[in-house]
Amino acid sequence: MASLAEALATTFLPARCATCTGVLPWRGSRAGVCPVCWSQVAPHAGRLCPSCGEAEVADAAPCLGCRAAPPAWRAATSYGPYVGVLRDLVVSFKNGRRDELAVPLAELLLAAWQRAGWPRPNCVAPVPMTAWRRCRRGFNQSELLARRLAGVLGTEFVHALCRSGGQAQFGRTRAQRLSLSASNFAPRGPVAGEVLLVDDVLTTGATATACVTALLRAGASAVRVITVARTLRPGRIP
Ligand SMILES: [Zn+2]
Ligand SMILES: [Zn+2]
Questions:
Q1: Which contiguous run of DSSP H or E holds residue 186?
Q2: From ligand 2's centre to the CA of 114, what distance in Å?
Q3: How far is CA 150 from CA 50, 54, 224, in A?
Q4: Which of the ligands is closest to the CA of residue 69?
């Protein structure tokens, strides 16, 4: 039964869940999201391709796509599919300016990193945002995640890359997006050792590929890519 304090709090402080908009319960909510929503955040099912992180692949070898065209990165992985509540959380983190979600989302990154069984990186770097977009949004979501993850892994956070151009990728064709990102990233300086590149979502992989190429050019010995979510292959039923 609800205590008096609980009843008073929910009556006079009717906070709403950032995802389902239901009234936040007294206990169990995190970063403004109710426990029911958190319980629906699911990791990828089945085996992941060790190279690109594609879910539900048949065996432990790199998938057909990776064998046909090996990616620029050493490996990529993510916590779960970009659907449902996980998608809502990422969108709300990015566009809803809910930077408090960085803490629980970085925990999902840590879980993905542990699942992948990767070695500890020498540094953690975010996918950068253009100065214009960062100014408009007030924060770079990938930077918040990367800082947090670097802290948890006990490794260095580095602003390894900068990004030029103000064009958003939204509404562009895949070909336009691929050509857009290739030239838009530049290293800020030399990079050494293995780098863990952090972003919120892996979509076409074009942005990550451009970043990885720039990091390798700057001296990184290997780059692994980690994202909170990953979009499903077109035509795939979640
Ligand atoms: Zn909720
Ligand atoms: Zn693959």
A1: strand 185-187
A2: 19
A3: 22, 24, 14
A4: 2
Considering every ligand atom shown, identify the ligand nearest to the alpha carbon of residue 15 and give its number. Answer: 1
Q: In order along the chain (238 residues), what is the average pLDDT of each group of 10 residues?
A: 60 75 87 94 93 88 92 97 96 86 96 97 94 79 96 96 69 60 81 97 92 95 98 63
Taking the centre of ligand 1 as the mean of its atom positions, its distance from the CA of residue 119, in whole angstroms, is 35
Residue 223, SS3?
A: strand
1 alpha carbon to ligand 1 midpoint, in Å?
21
CA of 230 from ligand 1 middle (Å) equals 22
Nearest ligand, CA 53: 2
pTM for this entry? 0.86
Q: Which ligand is closest to the CA of 233, given by its number?
A: 2
In this structure, are residues 195 and 46 in contact, taking their beta carbons and an 8 Å threshold?
Answer: no
Token pair listed for 97: 């300016």
| Domains along the chain with CATH numbers | 9-40 (no CATH), 48-230 (3.40.50)
